[in-house]
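PROTEIN–LIGAND DATA SHEET

This sheet pairs a single protein chain with one bound small molecule, zinc ion, given as SMILES. Inputs appear in the order they were entered. The predicted three-dimensional arrangement of chain and ligand is reported afterwards as a token string under its own label.
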Amino acid sequence: MSGTLVQQAGSLSLDIDADRLLRRIADLARIGRSEVTGGITREGFSAADREARAYLMAEARAAGLAPSIDAAGNVIVRPVHVSSSSTDRQALMMGSHLDTVVNGGRLDGAYGVVAALEVLQTLVESGTETRHEPVAVAFANEEGALFPQPFWGSMAIAGRLAGLPREPQDHQGRPLREALRLAGGDLDALGSAGWPSGSVAAYLELHVEQGPVLERSGNRIGVVDAITGRIVLTLEVRGAAGHSGTAPMEGRRDALAAAARVVLATENISRERGLCRVATVGRIDPHPNTPNTIVGAVRMTVDLRDTDVWRAATAEQALRHALDAIAAATGTEIEVVAETRSDPVSTSPALRTAIERSTDELGLPYETLPSGAGHDAQMIGDIAPIGMIFVPSLGGISHVPEEDTDPADLVAGARVLFRTALRTVGPTSYPSHQD
Ligand SMILES: [Zn+2]
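PREDICTION REPORTED AS:
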């Protein structure tokens, strides 16, 4: 351990307020909650989402901090004493999102936002002089549950405007423009939400794992090494519909039987051949979908994920070969009609080290793991080195009302975020995280 780190360890008495953290998580869990299912529905830019954002801003103001809303609808909380002249200081950005899926859990996103606020408040209240300006962000519409533009806020901050529609609409065709205005944003000024490259020294996101890895290993903290890339192919399988009683088996061009082979081939690409981390057919729409008719056409999706872009590409190529072979064997046509892809993003090695040392300091067992889900960090990776911290998810489940984490782990994760932030913003020189 270097002298710097020993010195840092000496300031262990400085700590977050665990009760305040848990109270805010509980407060947010009441916004958009269904009395029937216990699930939370706070779709991005919905009334419940606005209420959660208002709550965050009120808490920040009560803490003497300065919350504001950018043109994309992101809530940005800064230390109040920062004047415009000091914005040349690089930021340490921390955050996550307050929006949820329909009938989701109370922790996905909200936990990371509350923890970021807690760390910022602790730094300010303790009068800690920091090299970088600590900033807490609640990114707008990460899930894309209502307006199908996921990562909306973090894409705007990262300057990825080309990837966003000019006049976005929700599933019913209602314009985002008005919903964004109600949330305090401005579609016409979207470019102003961008942070220039170099303005963010580091970005840290604390999140529930949403998977079973940490619970199974018994480790309390996950240090994320990479966020998986994702390739989603929408396929159309075209055969020939016919009477299920009169058409002989010989000569059939059953699109659903072909689709079934695609399902197994997809599973095989990961499970048997190990070409990518996970491979899933998540959606199948057969037509005409009646009991006594051979299916004539199927629309389906294949989702391939890996943290290595070349492995994902290899898996995609293998899948496309399999599709050709299945089409030939079943007399069907299989066409890829749409594709979306996001590249994997690696976290910063220096920030990983900072997280590991903070975890060691607190005596918590940890492991390194990839994130299978996408996160705002993926977008912010365009403009800054990123670090991600996971805490265990009970039962490994997420996006459901039962999503939960042991309160002791919620506090532990926030402590790791705090100590990592101290290493990153602190007045002492921590080994460079600019990689
Ligand atoms: Zn999330």
